[in-house]
Amino acid sequence: MKEQLHELKEQVMLKIKESNTVKELNDVRVAYLGKKGPITDLLKGMGKLPAEERPKMGALVNEIRESVTEILEERKVLLEQQAIQEQLENESIDVTLPGRPVELGNHHPLTRVVEEIEDFFISMGYEIAEGPEVEKDYYNFEALNLPKGHPARDMQDSFYITEDILLRTHTSPVQARTMEAKDGAAIKIICPGKVYRRDSDDATHSHQFTQIEGLVVGENIRMSDLKGTLDLLAKKLFGAEREIRLRPSFFPFTEPSVEMDISCFKCGGSGCNVCKRTGWIEILGAGMVHPNVLEMAGYNPEEVTGFAFGMGPERIAMLKYGVEDIRHFYTNDIRFISQFHRTEA
Ligand code: FA5
To answer: Is the CB of 145 under 6 A from ligand 1?
Structure first.
């Protein structure tokens, strides 16, 4: 049995030496030291030995088991180190390789135009006001001099939720809400936000789009103030050479009402495809706040006056960046958005 044991030890040592991976080594450990291995068998067979030999043999088996375990551990540490070494060699970094370009994000063109307009008005002392997109019919229409059944309501096809609640069709309800809340005090605000209309989507119309409304109320606010403000805005957005012209128009909440055109930034006024050969491009609607609107919000139209204007930033961004279809702003096509990477506003 002694010889058998020594032979077994030699065998295990050889197998350990021949193992080249931690897994192979583990297989050897299980095969020789495991419950079904030969050492366990030998220990089990000790009962058949004469009593005086048992302690000696027991000690020998234990000794062999301990030394095999020790060698196994040493080999394991060595193999693990080798594996790490190999991995490091395979993973070595070639510092001479050129770097991979990192794609930087950038602002959406619509966000850019909105922020540019906001910055302009903030620099002129305006505050930003916001209001709900799910709005009461009262603020969206009635408080703006558009009572129920008024034919001009048809100018803005609406998504009604109940008879008295709808998705706001313009940002003008924020003007009505602000006037009501200010309780007769002077106002200088712009209201950017999303609006909704039952318009069929096409190259220049969307059922959801953005607007920026402006409102100034106070003593002695005149049409010339409106014109001067809009003139500066046009120059800021489209260049210092831009001229503006105000054409008579109609909005129920302003009187008089105007639409503002800018001189065409492409042809300078001589006529081209951008301005449809007219030399002028329509940008926004505006006017002096209607006395009825002031009165409904608690102001005395004999004492204060105001001007208001409203524009669609999508249309402005389309003109500024030469975008031919409004739907590009909403489809999140990275090929579209990435074109604006280095274009400075
Ligand atoms: C208004 O909504 C008025 N509230 C603007 C106003 C405010 C006038 C204060 C006077 C005083 P209008 O319906 O024209 O007006 O819309 C304003 C702008 O929204 C348009 O010039 C256009 O740029 C944009 N717009 C209108 N409908 C759509 C649409 N379906 N898709 C994209 N933009 C639109």
So the answer is: no
Indicate whether residue 196 lines ligand 1 (CB < 6 A): no
Distance 238 CA to ligand 1 centre (A): 19
Percent of the chain with pLDDT over 90: 59
Tokens 């606010």 — which residue?
221
Higher pLDDT, 87 or 251: 251
pLDDT computed for residue 131 by the predictor: 97
In which region does residue 63 sit, left (phi positive, over 0), alpha (psi from -120 to 50) or beta (all else)? alpha
CA of 310 relative to ligand 1 center, distance in Å = 6
Please tell me which residue, 43 or 187, carries the higher pLDDT value: 187
Distance, in Å, from the CA atom of 45 to the CA atom of 31, rounded to the nearest integer, reads 18
Q: Whose CA is nearest to atom 24 of ligand 1?
A: 312
Average pLDDT over residues 167-188: 96
Instruction: Give the Å distances, CA to CA, from 87 to 76, 95, 249, 314.
Output: 16, 18, 76, 55
CB distance 199 to ligand 1 below 6 Å: yes
Ligand 1: which of 315, 316, 325, 329 to mutate, most ligand atoms within 8 Å of CB?
A: 315
Residue nearest (by alpha carbon) to ligand 1 atom 26 = 312
Nearest ligand 1 atom to alpha carbon 312? 23
Q: H-type helices in the chain, by residue range? A: 2-18, 22-33, 38-44, 54-90, 109-123, 137-140, 172-182, 223-238, 291-296, 313-321, 334-337
Distance 170 CA to ligand 1 centre (A): 7
* Cα angle value 43/46/47 (rounded, 5°): 125
pLDDT bin (cut points 50, 70, 90) of residue 342 is: low
Q: Whose CA is nearest to atom 14 of ligand 1?
A: 285
pLDDT, tens digit, 9 for 90 and up, residues 29-74: 888 888 888 878 877 777 888 888 888 888 888 888 888 889 899 9
Task: Say if residue 130's pLDDT is above 90.
Answer: yes
- pTM score, two decimals? 0.73
